[in-house]
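Protocol step 4 of 6: record predicted structures for both targets in the notebook before any analysis. Target 1:
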Amino acid sequence: MHTCEYCGAHNGLVKKKPNEPLKILHEKFRKDSDVDELIRQFEYSCNLNPELERNLKDMTEDLDPVKVQRIFMGIRQEDIALLHINHNLCKP
C-alpha cells in the first residue's frame, strides 16, 4: 500500500539514518512518478535554481522521536494486531 486509506498520506520507505542515533528517514518520494509530480509543483523554483531539481530527487523526511511517537499514538486499536504487538502489554 502506498497511500494511507485513512488520511491519504504517502507511505514511502522508512530506514535508519546512517551514523545518527534516533534519526529515521522517510523516503516519501521514492518512485519516479512521485518525484516528477514534486518537480512539477516546484517548476517555477526549479527554473530559477536548476540545482533545486537535483536536491528534490534526494528529498527525505526526517522523523524525530516525537514525530514517531505521534504516529504510533494515532494507530487505531484494531490495527495494533497487524504490528504483532500484544495490546495487553503495551499500546503505541
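Target 2:
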Amino acid sequence: MEVVNLKAIGIEKRVDSVGRIVIPKEIRRLLNIDFGDILEVLIDSGNIIVRKAAGTKCLITGERTGNMIKLADGKIVVSNEGAKILRAEIAKEIKIAKVKKNNGKEIKV
C-alpha cells in the first residue's frame, strides 16, 4: 500500500480506556468526515492509517456504491437495490397491518 502526502500537523491525541481517539473537528471538516460516515482502518509498516471507506455500505444488501439513498437524517443508508427490497417489505407489512385492522378480511391495497 502506497500512502502519499503524509503531513505532520502537530496534533497528538490520547487513546481512551476503550481504545478510542477523537478526530479533531478541523480535520473532520478538512476531510469532509460527517457523523455516521464509515472509516477504514489500515496498518502499514507499523503505522495506523484511517481513511473514509470507498462508499457507504447499504444496510440491506451490504454493497458499497457511490449512489446511495440516505433516509432518517442519514441514519439509514441504502443502495437502489436495497431501496427496492425495503420498499417491497414495507408494502407487504402495510398490507398485513391493513388486513389485521379489517378483522382478517382481504382488502385491496
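Step 5 preliminary note on target 2. DSSP finds two helices and four strands in the chain. The two ends are 54 Å apart (CA to CA).
Proceed to step 6 after PI sign-off.
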